[in-house]
C-alpha cells in the first residue's frame, strides 16, 4: 500500500493540476477512484499489521521480562561492605551490564511501538509513512533487544564455564546463538523490503529513442 501511494503521488506531481479535480463519466475525481480501488488493500494491510504487531509484542514482552530479570541478577554477587560487585574488574562483566540494559530498553521500546498498532485507525494516509515507520522502528528495536539479550546471557554465563572451557567458550556460545541467528536471517528479507520501500523514491520512467 505504501508503494501504491508513492506511485499515486508521483503521478500527481507529473500531470497538470487541473486534471486532479477533473471528474470522469461517473463524476469521480482521481483521489476518490484511488481510495475506492485500494479499500481492500488497506483492509488487508491493516489485518496483517494487527497480526504481526500482536505476535511481535508477545516476543518483545518476553524479552523485556527476561532482560529485567537478567539486569537485576549480578554474576558473582555483591560485596557486603562496599556493595560493589565481586567481578566488576573483569571486562566481561562490563559487557554483561551494558548489554542487559540495552536489551531491556530496546525490548520495552519495541513493545510500546507494536502496541501502538492496536490503537491505530489504519487509514489510507497512515500507510504513507506513519505505519511503516513504526513497524521499521519496532522490528529494529526487537532485533537489537534479541542480540543484546544473547550477548548478555553469554557474558554472564562465561563466569560459570571460563575455567572449564577456557578457549573453547567462544565457539560454544557461538553455536548456542545459531538458532536465533537463523530466525533473524529469515526475517531480514521483510526488514530490507521495509527499508527499501520507506527510503526509496519511485523511479522515473526512462524513454529511449529508437532509430529506424
UniProtKB/TrEMBL annotation:
Record's GO cellular component, any one? membrane
Residues spanning the membrane: 58-78, 98-118, 139-160, 172-192
Keyword Transmembrane helix (UniProt): yes
Q: Which domain of life is it from?
A: Eukaryota
Q: Which residues form the PGG domain?
A: 47-159
Q: Which UniProt keywords apply?
A: Membrane, Transmembrane, Transmembrane helix
Database matches in PANTHER family = CASKIN, PGG DOMAIN-CONTAINING PROTEIN
Record's protein name: PGG domain-containing protein
- From which organism does this entry originate? Quercus rubra (Northern red oak)
Amino acid at each position: 500500500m505504501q508503494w501504491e501511494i508513492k506511485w499515486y503521488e508521483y503521478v500527481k506531481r507529473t500531470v497538470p493540476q487541473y486534471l486532479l479535480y477533473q471528474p470522469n463519466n461517473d463524476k469521480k475525481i482521481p483521489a476518490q477512484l484511488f481510495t475506492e480501488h485500494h479499500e481492500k488493500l488497506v483492509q488487508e494491510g491493516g489485518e496483517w499489521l494487527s497480526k504481526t504487531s500482536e505476535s511481535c509484542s508477545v516476543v518483545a514482552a518476553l524479552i523485556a521480562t527476561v532482560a529485567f530479570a537478567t539486569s537485576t541478577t549480578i554474576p558473582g554477587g555483591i560485596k557486603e561492605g562496599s556493595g560493589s560487585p565481586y567481578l566488576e574488574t573483569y571486562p566481561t562483566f562490563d559487557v554483561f551490564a551494558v548489554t542487559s540494559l540495552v536489551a531491556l530498553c530496546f525490548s520495552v521500546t519495541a513493545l510500546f511501538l507494536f502496541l501502538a498498532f492496536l490503537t491505530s485507525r489504519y487509514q489510507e494516509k497512515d500507510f504513507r509513512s506513519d505505519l511503516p515507520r513504526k513497524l521499521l522502528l519496532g522490528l529494529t528495536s526487537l532485533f537489537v533487544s534479541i542480540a543484546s539479550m544473547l550477548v548478555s546471557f553469554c557474558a554472564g554465563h562465561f563466569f560459570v564455564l571460563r575455567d572449564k572451557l577456557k578457549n573453547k567458550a567462544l565457539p560454544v556460545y557461538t553455536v548456542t546463538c545459531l538458532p536465533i541467528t537463523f530466525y533473524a536471517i529469515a526475517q531480514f528479507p521483510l526488514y530490507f523490503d521495509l527499508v527499501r520501500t520507506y527510503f526509496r523514491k519511485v523511479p522515473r520512467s526512462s524513454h529511449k529513442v529508437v532509430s529506424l
